[in-house]
From TrEMBL:
GO terms for molecular function: ATP binding; kinase activity; metal ion binding; protein serine/threonine phosphatase activity. It holds the Pfam family GAF_2. Its EC number is 3.1.3.16. Keywords: ATP-binding, Coiled coil, Hydrolase, Kinase, Magnesium, Manganese, Metal-binding, Nucleotide-binding, Phosphoprotein, Protein phosphatase, Transferase. It comes from the Bacteria. This is protein-serine/threonine phosphatase. Primarily acts as an independent SigF regulator that is sensitive to the osmosensory signal, mediating the cross talk of PknD with the SigF regulon. Possesses both phosphatase and kinase activities. The kinase domain functions as a classic anti-sigma factor-like kinase to phosphorylate the anti-anti-sigma factor domain at the canonical regulatory site, and the phosphatase domain antagonizes this activity. The keyword Acetylation does not apply. Residues 144-171 form a coiled coil. It catalyses: O-phospho-L-seryl-[protein] + H2O = L-seryl-[protein] + phosphate. InterPro entries: Bact_Sigma-Reg, GAF, GAF-like_dom_sf, PAS, PAS-like_dom_sf, PAS_4, PPM-type-like_dom_sf, PPM-type_phosphatase-like_dom.
Amino acid sequence: MVAVVDAQGAAAVRPPIREPLLSLALTSMMDAVGAHSGAVYLRPGDEPLLEMAVMAGLPRSFAAPWERVGLSAPIPVADAVRERRLVWVGGQEEMARRYPRIAVVLPYPFALAAVPLATAERVYGAVFMTWPGSRPPELTERERRELTSACDRLAARLERAAQENRTVRAESDLLDAGPVGGAARTLGPVEAARMVARLPYGLCSLDLGGRVGFVNAAAAEMLGVPATRLLGTQLWASVPWLNDPSYEERYRAALISQDAVSFVALRPPSDWLSFRLYPSTTGISVRISRARAVTENRPSGPRSGDAPTRLVSMSQALSLAGALTETVSVQDVVGLVADEIAPAVGSQALALLGARAGRLHVLGHHGYPDPRVVQRFDGMPLSSQTPGAHTVVHGVPAFFESRRQLEHLYPARQESPDGFASWAFLPLIASGRPVGACVLAYATPHLFSTHERAVLTSLAGLIAQALDRALLYDAKHQLAHGLQAALLPPSLPALPGIEATARYLPATRGMEIGGDFYDLVPSRPLPAAVIGDVQGHNVTAAGLMGQIRTAVRAYTTVGQEPGEVMRSTNRLLIDLGSDRFASCLYLRLDPERHRAVMARAGHPPPLLRRADGRVRVLDLAGGPPLGIVPTATYPTTEVDLSPGSVLALYTDGLIESPGVDIEDAIADLGRRLGEAGDRPLEEVADELVGHYAAAEERIDDVALLLLRAAREDG
């Protein structure tokens, strides 16, 4: 039962709404826009979760991986709820591009719309509908209006139900199965039945659930199963040599795409039969005929187990495997398990435990009212008598259907109850070695069937592979950031007459380490500043950056002039034999004279903001990037650095974006510097890098060094 709660979260206490509210609204919407399937999702209270309340037009098993989904899941209904907008996917290619995980499980041509059920106060859920892939790829304005207005009306009904503390129940799915039984009831007139019986090829009719409603004598003979045993059963369940997922897949393809599909199957020992499936919104008509001998290998052997159950498990595995391949860090894995895997298996809480140096480590958890219950296991020896340690050491899953079972084997658990009633402890084994354990907790006593235990154990294998990759990534990530931090100055020295601040943002691709650098050198008699960018985003670039920064400091300390510092660094880079080059901008500062002497090596031009707010691009003369021309020279330019002026030195990551002209980007940076330049320097720096700091993806490193000449009155 799915309950709608009131604004204070109080549980519904009045009788439920008795009329099939959701079913009527759904079928009305489907008729209005010509959709062939659809479903209504509702939010259970304020949980970040969507639960399917009713489905129409297709068996629910087709949507099994998404019966319960987290609001953060990258699927259309979750996007529609989060963004409060209609989401339209016009076909198979667009689905593969925008929602690859759905395309993996349902690789068929169909279109889909997802619409939120929302009022001004809250979002109650969402509706999705599908159309055959043959429809136009765009949603018409009429269809858009029909869907949004119908969903607005349903949301208003749900809001009234919540205000009246009335429950909206999940409803029975709508499948036009029709009567199942004899040929006369299925076909109608007797003469029609006689006509079909005389045809030389086999005919049978399947409802939307795959059950046989009619079969003629020729079909029964070719299938080798009496008609009485076929009627009312799923074809692949009654015909052993059709009990194969690949044949069920063609049935799913026909229903979802609403296009005719064909396949050939071997009836042992040597008879090949051709199947042609003609779908409609009420079922599938199947024509069966003898096929010419084929030489290619095709699946033919029977498979054990219940076909619909296996179909659901296969879909779940495909969907979640696709999701786990997208995870990068350990926290990504924890988030995915919490948002999608735990809801899919009905768990209310989880913990991921890692194993390192003979001890357990809590990698992440979700759903525990008191996090200290989980954290007490962090650092616990693997020799301890706990179910988590036992699962890691022995690599065997453990299922506890009640607290009594758990505490019987592990009495120590009585001292720290976690508030749950059932648990699954799943070993995470990757490449034959244990990497940890996944603990799933259930709020009520839970019976783990043999099938469910197998599914959970299989999911644990997928989680283990993702976690193993994530642990390696996090270790490399930590190493890279440690190296980057060691190569950049931990703080900027205080200089008389100069205020300075800096920002560094690594690229989000690769190892998130690069060759951008900056430094402030408090040398005598005059200090210096430098900013540069070594080609590349890896450890090699970072190491070369460290050598260049050290060289610049050394040449500055021995008193070389700006042009000579650049020439010496250029020769050093060439002598090192590196195939990389670097851009660089070097300044010798003279605060007392309010001057600065600059030398540039292929670096973006600095910006100078004067005290009156005017900004100038200092397009200085310079030489080529360092490391290219052994005999290169670097002319210098002296610029005025009057009191209150701000110099902005930056790397190209701050101004380069796909599709944006460099000159326009520099002009925009200058505009923002002009507007913010009178604020405290830290705020100015945050303003200039704000857009890049908030971006989820940066294709290049960003370094920024701001220098402000002290005002004479300050």
